[in-house]
Write a structure and sequence with these properties.
heterodimer, A: about 170 residues, alpha+beta, 5-stranded mixed beta barrel, 5 helices, about 40% helix, elongated, B: about 250 residues, mainly alpha, 9 helices
């Protein structure tokens, strides 16, 4: 490799690294805004604004779904297995909606601490399986590990943030 | 090694070797894609939650893989062209861009079709979907840049730099589902580590992925050959070739 080519190679690699750092810092600064939804931990910590359109996501807690037999009204609890938030919705739910399923609800956080949802979207995890395998797994106590891990990370970050705020008071 | 790389610099040598390679890749692509399609659509079991709509994965995932791999290939060939001035690298990058754009569109479109029955919406501005849309715009930008200059050399340089800088988007696409909360689920199909589906669902997907990659290699070989003839049309060896055909 001639010195001139070497110089060019380093120039382009440098250019790409600088651009990567710029993009990385931007994404780091915007990290909270890039999240599609607030998790119940964040809502419980007061990160989500009241009475403004927000999205909240988590799993539908088992045994929490209450359907009004006379209307399309439905209530359920969205959980990240640390905190819960109650959701009120009136409308048709997606086919994949069920207890233990990941959902994203679009709606407004009310003063009573529940979400009045305009739209409920089903989230699905990265696992696919034939029905008979699913039945066998359910019998063995299958749980959505991915979501719990991520929720644990957010909980840790919020804890650390609070610890720092606490430290600055002294 | 160096001898091989030096040979690669010669369009004439590439033209000869690709003539021998391309039928194999076309045959592999045809066999793998036909096998994978029939297996995936007719014989793989349905998903326990999504039923038959999950079969979109057999197009969606291979297309999304190619969309990202082609952009990385374009960035590498762009670097090789800019540093070593190897023309064949630029010719390959030229023919890759439309295929990459097409694959990105297929991934976005099949994802939207899939989103309606599973999520309840065809589009959501989450990190994975948005970064994939940016990839489509980057491809269109690369294609537009090539057409925007009157001098081919300036066009190639501009397109190469955009490909190199744009490649930063690829890790963002890949890890968006791990870094942020998204509607899109994390990766099912991984080369290493845990696979989120049983063998009878995963094998046809693997076959489709391999088939799509064979198709990519075959198409790039064939189209690069045309690009060589187009760009080297006044060269001695191309004229001789044309006379032989006549």
């Amino acid at each position: 490799m001639t010195p001139k080519r070497k110089q060019k190679l380093f120039m382009f690699l440098g250019l790409v690294s600088l651009a990567a750092i710029a993009v990385g810092l931007t994404l780091y600064a915007l990290r909270a805004n890039i999240n599609l939804f607030f998790s119940p931990i964040q809502i419980a910590a007061g990160d989500a604004p009241f009475e403004r359109q927000i999205r909240a996501g988590g799993m539908v807690r088992e045994g929490s779904v209450y359907r009004n037999p006379d209307s399309l009204d439905v209530e359920f609890t969205v959980t990240d297995y640390v905190e819960d938030v109650r959701v009120h919705y009136s409308g048709i739910l997606p086919d994949l909606f069920r207890e233990g399923q990941g959902v994203v609800v679009v709606g407004q956080l009310q003063q009573g601490g529940y979400i009045k949802a305009d739209q409920v979207l089903a989230r699905h995890d990265e696992n696919y399986m034939p029905p008979e395998v699913a039945d066998a797994l359910e019998a063995a106590g299958y749980s959505p590990a991915d979501f719990q891990q991520k929720a644990a990370k957010v909980a840790k970050r919020i804890e650390e943030g609070e610890a720092q705020e606490g430290a600055s008071q002294y | 090694m160096w001898a091989f790389i030096n040979k690669l610099r010669s369009p004439k040598w590439f033209y000869a070797i690709s003539a021998r390679l391309q039928p194999w890749f076309w045959a592999a692509a045809l066999i793998l894609i036909v096998t994978g399609t029939i297996w995936g659509l007719a014989f793989a079991p349905a998903d326990y939650q999504q039923g038959n709509s999950f079969r979109i994965i057999y197009v969606h995932v291979p297309a999304a893989f190619l969309a990202q791999s082609i952009f990385v290939s374009m960035a590498i060939t762009g670097l090789v062209f800019m540093v070593w001035k190897i023309k064949i690298a630029d010719m390959a990058a030229t023919v890759m861009a439309p295929l990459g754009a097409a694959m990105t569109f297929i991934a976005l479109f099949s994802g939207a079709v899939w989103g309606v029955p599973t999520w309840g919406t065809w589009w959501m501005w989450d990190a994975r979907l948005t970064s994939m849309l940016i990839l489509l715009f980057l491809y269109l930008g690369v294609i537009a840049l090539r057409g925007a200059f009157s001098s081919r050399d300036s066009a190639s340089r501009a397109a190469s730099v955009l490909a190199m800088v744009g490649v930063i988007n690829i890790p963002i696409i890949k890890y968006s589902v791990d870094w942020w909360y998204t509607l899109h689920q994390p990766a099912t199909f991984t080369i290493t580590g845990r696979v989120g589906m049983p063998m009878e669902m995963w094998l046809p997907l693997l076959i489709m992925v391999l088939g799509f990659y064979s198709f990519f290699i075959a198409l790039v070989l064939t189209r690069t050959r045309s690009e060589i003839l187009r760009r080297e049309s006044n060269k001695h060896w191309v004229r001789e070739l044309a006379e032989e055909v006549n």
